[in-house]
Specification:
Blueprint lengths: L2 H14 L6 H4 L7 E2 L5 E5 L4 H6 L6 H12 L8 E4 L13 H18 L3 E5 L1 H7 L5 H4 L4 E3 L2 E6 L2 H6 L2 H11 L1 H13 L13
Parallel strand pairs: 2-3, 2-4, 4-6
Antiparallel strand pairs: 1-3, 5-6
Helix pairs in contact: 1-5
The protein binds iron/sulfur cluster.
Length: 204
């Protein structure tokens, strides 16, 4: 195993035993995250639901199936990306995570991103969006990439939203289709020598 794989594995073990907020008392299993430790793209959802809490894996319910479809639509599989959540333990009755819980859990996600060093972060839903786009609404900025601290962040609706609102299904699918093009632009920008006029990406 390489350094990133070992570091993520160690971190997952620490998350599994984390006592830092009250959700540690009600969880069945913590859900640290899963995927390629060297992924170009990290997807950040909200928090575990019932199925995730039972299995200790992210996005394994209906929303997870839709996420698999979305990934397949751009020729990716789960093993090609990394999938994590803003909070690692399930809030009781699937209530919204509380600010104190998000704050307590944030260092775990920070460490995961430090280890993986993705080129792109895709936020799924409003709680992960808020990490990067304070005061924004998902309806206004979904699908629009923005470079933040050297990483391109793309806010998107949560796949679960499409299960409740059928009209969002097409919107999420269209936003996903933009990801390969954004990654290609990033690769070209990295390969090309410095120019007076840098490659322009359509950013917020
Ligand atoms: S939600 Fe995060 S901070 Fe709270 S117990 Fe779980 S891993 Fe720890």
């Amino acid at each position: 195993m390489d350094d990133a794989t070992i570091a993520l594995h160690d971190l997952s073990e620490q998350v599994a035993a984390c006592p830092k907020c009250a959700l540690s008392k009600t969880r069945t299993k913590a859900v640290p995250g899963a995927g390629d430790p060297h992924a170009d793209i990290v997807f950040i959802g909200e928090g575990p639901g019932y199925n995730e809490d039972q299995q200790g894996l992210p996005f394994v319910g209906q929303a997870g199936k839709f996420l698999d479809e979305l990934l397949a639509s751009i020729d990716l599989r789960r093993e090609d990306v990394y999938i994590a959540n803003v909070i690692k333990c399930r809030p009781p009755n699937n209530r919204d995570p509380q600010p104190g819980e998000i704050e307590a859990c944030a260092p775990w996600l920070d460490q995961q991103l430090d280890i993986i060093k993705p080129r792109m972060i895709v936020t799924l839903g409003r709680f992960s969006m808020s990490r990067y786009f304070q005061g924004q609404t998902i309806g206004r900025i979904h699908g629009q990439p923005k470079k933040i601290d050297g990483v391109v962040v793309v806010p998107m609706y949560h796949p679960a939203a499409a299960l409740h609102q059928a009209n969002l299904r097409g919107t999420i699918m269209e936003d996903f289709k933009k990801l390969p093009g954004i990654l290609r632009e990033l690769s070209q920008s990295a390969e090309e020598p410095a120019k007076p006029e840098p490659v322009q990406m359509k950013l917020l």
